[in-house]
Amino acid sequence: xxxxxxxxxxxxxxxxxxxxxxxxxxxxxxxxxxxxxxxxxxxxxxxxxxxxxxxxxxxxxxxxxxxxxxxxxxxxxxxxxxxxxxxxxxxxxxxxxxxxxxxxxxxxxxxxxxxxxxxxxxxxxxxxxxxxxxxxxxxxxxxxxxxxxxxxxxxxxxxxxxxxxxxxxxxxxxxxxxxxxxxxxxxxxxxxxxxxxxxxxxxxxxxxxxxxxxxxxxxxxxxxxxxxxxxxxxxxxxxxxxxxxx
Length: 246
Ligand SMILES: Nc1ncnc2c1ncn2[C@@H]1O[C@H](COP(=O)(O)OP(=O)(O)OP(=O)(O)O)[C@@H](O)[C@H]1O
Ligand SMILES: [Mg+2]
What we know:
The chain is an alpha/beta fold. It has a domain at 86-149. It has helices at residues 44-52, 91-95, 110-118, 134-147, 164-181, 192-198, 230-245, and strands at residues 2-13, 16-28, 33-37, 59-64, 67-68, 76-79, 152-156, 184-189, 201-205, 212-217. Strand 7 (152-156), helix 5 and strand 8 (184-189) form a beta-alpha-beta unit. Helix 3 packs antiparallel against helix 4 (134-147). The longest helix has 18 residues, at 164-181. The chain starts with a strand and ends with a helix. The site of magnesium ion has 4 residues, from helix 1.
């Protein structure tokens, strides 16, 4: 369980202090998927920095299974908004970070091969990130997070750079993997549709500094042909209303 109590985060910059998150309180059960939605600049990425241990200077209390966040002892799969690939490592080395592996592709196990294949990057393994398109880099970051079989998966708009069809394939792949491993997931998105398709619960954040406006139970989770359903229309209107008022 992830437990967040009175979490506030401020950045110190040249122009003084910017409050990015304002007293966030939420519990997320082990194995659950929460999507977070909110306007640009409301602190979504900041929340993931706290949960992944990148930011440790905050007010409030954040624990994962009763312990403080520590990437050295917890397996955290992190997909950053700017992908977070290491420029001096090849695709293969980037995807295998955190694995104990041989230095050529003979070190790939079946699961890694399956992921690389599903993500369509198996032919790019020897390239460097600068030799990839944005969407390809994003898929490498996704592969790395999935391959490590994390206990906690933190995804910051992971499918934003993909075309519509690829995005739908990736959403389906993600749900498949989530079902197989029931990994606790926080999924950040700008898209109301994506929040409705992928979140068992949807957390709606206010304009900056981010506060939780509402945590919504989502009857649309994993529904096929979502866009043709009445529940979808009702929920979509409801989320937009909450966002507009925030
Ligand atoms: N290093 C920093 N120094 C000062 N202010 C920062 C810094 N990083 C982020 N901020 C500010 O903190 C706030 C939250 O930023 P954050 O990146 O978490 O937003 P976000 O919700 O992820 O936005 P987006 O949807 O555009 O990705 C913003 O107002 C941003 O300008
Ligand atoms: Mg962000």
